[in-house]
Write a structure and sequence with these properties.
thrh gene product, domain 2, globular, Rossmann fold, 9 helices, about 200 residues, alpha/beta, seven-stranded mixed β-sheet, 7 strands
Length: about 200
């Protein structure tokens, strides 16, 4: 049995924080796991910036409501679900992801959550489990699933390396230079073929 594990932002949907940075004009919010590999450090920085600028969860959710998945991503998701189980392994938050999951016809999503106070300010991020993407792949392999993974950032690296077959999808040059052994894919057509070629 085959299971395909994909990152969400940068693979199927635009980066939420980059869109929010464009809306607010706060350049530091453009930083993602492509720039800062330690997700805990990145999120603490983001939450601090939000507090400094009096921005609440609803302000981010209003921007997310205006976003759409990448062109072609829904058709790609439909094709993959015909040949394998599909799970989205993301470091995003359930409070962010739901509108996008609806537009992608609700593939299974494993992600994190936020601690939000009564005034709507984000107090902290709650990581479900450290290095959760890798651990999910390991768990799937333990129950004898053939795992195929793809993502675009540093926080996808251990997932990609642990899967039976893994690839980068539209990654920054820095991560591909550091990991030349990992295939690099740039279109949904290439990603679909990579998945099909690694089914068992």
């Amino acid at each position: 049995m085959n299971i395909v594990c994909l990152d969400l932002e940068g693979v199927l949907i635009p980066e939420i924080w980059i869109k929010f940075a464009q809306k607010t004009g706060i350049e530091e919010l453009r930083l993602t796991t492509r720039d800062i590999s330690d997700y805990d450090v990145l999120m603490k920085k983001r939450i601090s910036i939000l507090k400094e600028n009096n921005l609440r969860l609803k302000d981010i959710q209003e921007v997310i409501a205006t976003m759409d998945p990448f062109e072609g991503s829904l058709e790609f998701v439909r094709k993959i679900k015909e040949v394998a189980q599909l799970v989205i392994l993301s470091d995003t938050f359930v409070e962010f992801a739901d509108p996008m999951m609806k537009k992608l016809e609700r593939p299974t999503l494993f992600c994190n959550s936020l601690d939000v106070n009564a005034d709507g300010f984000i107090e902290a991020h709650k990581i479900r489990i450290k290095d959760g993407k890798r651990k999910a792949i390991e768990a799937f392999k333990q129950i004898n699933l053939n795992t195929i993974a793809a993502g675009d950032s540093y926080n996808d690296l251990t997932m990609i390396q642990t899967a039976n077959a893994g690839a980068f999808f539209k990654p920054p040059q820095s991560i591909t230079t550091e990991n030349p052994e990992i295939p690099v894919l740039s279109t949904y057509y290439e990603l679909e073929n990579f998945i099909l070629n690694n089914l068992k």
